[in-house]
Design brief:
Number of strands: 8
Number of helices: 5
Mean pLDDT: 91
Distance between the termini: 61 Å
Low-confidence stretches: none
């Protein structure tokens, strides 16, 4: 029987091998494999949250997309819909997609849930807003802290504000949380993979963070105007 490997499996193997040769440690490589966050980004988020006393939670991108993080650009907000249409553009296998208008290839971006900083009373939430990168000073600052000044490394900067901070206006829906959602948490250098909404909720409660979703994952926080 012939043994075969998919293109995505080959890309994941090459990404992790290159990261190991570049000095990324075994713990960061293992977490990248589990979370599908790029290995250089895992190392940067781990060390950065330790240095800046921050807690950051993000949704894990699609399975095997780790092989393409930083190789292709991350999905941007302007990629969300086809031109002149309300038809959504979604990523497929291994988090890749080709935009039907431009032909641009992109990979699943990192969707922030929320960001907090250490205070005298635990963790204080940083409102990341809903604007895209380049129009959002908070997101731009996070990208400066975690992704800038890393020449020669694969990286996928944040593209927009956190899901917890998004207040949908009237007539608009919220992304909500799937029961099977997986998140990655970086807390002052500690990394945790949270598989399923129950573990995500428990992590929020453990660190006394506001969890704006009901038990089915539906957003129950404040709405916009």
């Amino acid at each position: 029987m012939a043994l075969t490997a998919s293109m995505a499996e080959i890309a994941v193997y090459n990404m992790l091998r290159d990261a190991q040769h570049a000095g990324i440690g075994p713990g960061d490589l293992a977490f990248a494999t589990k979370s599908d966050i790029g290995p250089w980004d895992v190392a940067a988020l781990r060390t950065g949250t330790a240095r800046f006393k921050m807690l950051l939670i993000m949704r894990c991108p699609k399975k095997q997309s780790v092989g393409f993080q930083g190789v292709f650009g991350p999905k941007r907000m302007e990629h969300a819909y086809q031109k002149g249409s309300d038809k959504r553009v979604v990523t497929g296998e291994a988090g890749l997609a080709v935009h039907p208008d431009s032909g641009e290839i992109f990979v699943s971006d990192y969707d922030l849930m929320g960001v907090w900083e250490r205070s005298a009373y635990g963790y204080s939430r940083i409102d990341t807003g809903s604007k895209p990168r380049g129009e959002n000073p908070v997101v731009d600052k996070l990208n400066t802290l975690f992704f800038d000044n890393r020449p020669g490394e694969n990286k996928s900067p944040f593209q927009h504000g956190g899901q917890d901070d998004f207040k949908p206006p009237a007539g608009k829906s919220h992304p909500n949380l799937k029961l099977s959602e997986s998140c990655a948490a970086f807390r002052e250098g500690e990394m945790r993979h949270l598989a399923g909404i129950d573990r995500i909720r428990a992590y929020y409660y453990e660190h006394q963070l506001n969890f704006p979703y009901d038990h089915s994952g539906n957003y129950n926080g404040p709405r916009g105007d």
